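Appendix B, record 7
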Amino acid sequence: MKWYPRFGVAETVLTDMNTDMKKVFLALMMGLMMLGAMAQDGKFTVRGTFKHVGDSVHFLLRDLGVGESRAVTGEMLEVSFDLKDATEITIGRWFKGRGNEEKGDVTFPAIPGETLVVTADVNGDLHLSGSQFYVDYNEARKVVDPVNKEGDAFMKELMDKMAAGVPEAQLMELYQAKVPVLLENLNNAVMGYVKAHPDQDAAAALIAELPEELDLLEPAEALLTERARGSVAAHLYKKKLEKAQNEAAKHAKKGSEATDFTLMDINGKPLSLSSLRGKWVVIDFWGSWCVWCIKGMPKMKEYYAKYQDKLEILGVDCNDTVEKWKGAVAKHELPWLHVYWDKEKGDNPLELYHVDNFPTKIIIDPEGKVAKVVVGESPGFYDFLDKVLQ
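Structure tokens (predicted):
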């Protein structure tokens, strides 16, 4: 299971304090499993000796719904699956006398035609061998495992604090401080390995470790050789890339006319998007409750000051009370234009621009046409501004 949630999802969990936190959080983690796809048939075999890890082992192929459990006897187990598609296999380990929430899950690529051999050491850590792909992937895992283990431990800590009734504000502060650093470390680890092994199938598979964001997946893919991009393993990240592209396609298309809307500004006066034509404009969909939105504000302020003569930012506050909106603008000293989306009246810019994740930034050129859509807090947003405004 991945420790990083999609932008905006964790904030929903953290702010819904009347929900059964454990169930919501576990459902969130399960929902983050990536579903792989490819177009080649073949038998995938997994073998392993699991005597150090518990009383039974469960093999689950995520997108096929195929699972098998075996009691551990100390002898090598072997399970084979006929695969039409590349996917991920989760090896779940149940421990005697403990509930299911105490199991340890580890997920690896499942590639048709390949053999995965898993060996558990005395600490319960799993090591990969078998076909050459898994020998290489075992080395690739070493660059991301430290980050993922730290992320897993942090999410467990956060979940325990939720169950213990730690105040929402404190949880959000912990999340805001930790997760962006972990994500940056993960991206750096993946990019470093792919850059060093651009022709390796395992490097292509490792890209699937990244979050489902165009500005992370596309630069990683660009480092691969043409052969690696066309490999069977590449379909693991390509499924994520396709989802991210589909998500972006829901928004206004590049080159299309930006749909106008009018909302009340922070002084209670109507402000229309079309009134800003002539400058580059960033429509920033955000909220005071959105950790990723707030996390990006210092960098946004830096770029607003850098390009203020060419750039205008229009902050569209969503899902806040008026008081929280105005309080956040004052607290974070946000110097650009601000409008408030009132669910009960006026235009609905979220519907007009198909926004369902936060933050979402729509970049509009001086002619009033959509130049780029960025979902999440991404370095690619600032790179694009430098490209068009310098």
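Remarks on this record: Residues 9-190 form one domain. Residues 6-40, 95-103 have pLDDT under 50 and may be disordered.
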